Amino acid sequence: MFERISRGWRITKQSFRLIGKDPEMLAFPLLGSALATAGVVAISAAAGGGAYLLDPALMDKLSQQAGEEPTMSAGMLFYIFAVSFVATASSIYANFAVLNTMRVRLDGGDATFMDSVKAANGRLGDIMKWSLVVTSVGLVLHAIESACQRLGGIGSLIARGLAALMGGAWNVVSFMVVPAMVMDGVGPKEGLERSVGALKKSWGEGLTAHVSLGFVTIMAMLPFFAMVFMAVGAIAMAGETGGSMWYGGGLLCLSVVYILVTTLLLSVARVLFSGALYRFATTGKIGDEYDDDLVSGAFTPQG
Asked: 151-206, pLDDT tens digit by residue?
């Protein structure tokens, strides 16, 4: 297992190298976040304005009944679905653009930021369809988990464990859908079939990819927690001069910058990781930016 995790880290480093050659890929998650924020604000404004026009006293009623009625109305469920869909679609849109830049780079070309945006816009219909599937499955899994929490006792623990396994299985199965859509130009349905087919070659190694990425994420977060711990300690021991206070405040600001940059890098690296694994699983090679012998180990059956 340690050797697999080490291999996953080395593949991730190669993804960072690819980001270094095409740093504009870091702008796509930011674009996705901006689209998600704008979409959520627009939906919230439309929903709030519409509710007020229908019933000016609705907001007061909702606040009064919040603690009395555990069940949500159809309107609230629709609002949650709409917001989740916008957030999911924005993320998938950004991932699609990242993978398009990767595909062009691995094929020997050089895609600009606008080239990949145009590529994503050209497949907007497929992106919306897959976003609808992902949002629906996510909300169903969340509903199952919420229902499990109300069971109580040992039954709740067992049910929640099963729900967690279902969610984990879905994450693994859908891991390479967007790469399939980008690399092969297929729709969501065939993309899911191809994602499952790639994982069937080595189910355990597909899971190892998730473990490797999780391990890399944990290691990357350690400096953040160290900076926060030191900052809190410095602030707690601040003297009359205020020197420690400034030191602690500076560390907190640095930790915020670090976590934002690290999260951005890891999110793009994760997308590139999925693209690299899918490309190798389906073609037997990736490109000059990756070591094919290294990646081949992720799809070698273990005895």
From this structure: 666 766 777 777 778 887 888 888 889 999 999 999 999 999 998 888 776 555 55
If one counts the domains in the chain, the total is: 1
Cβ atoms of 174 and 181 within 8 Å: the answer is: no
Q: Which stretches of the chain score pLDDT less than 50?
A: 65-70, 299-303
Range of the domain at 128: 2-299
* pTM over the 0.90 mark: no
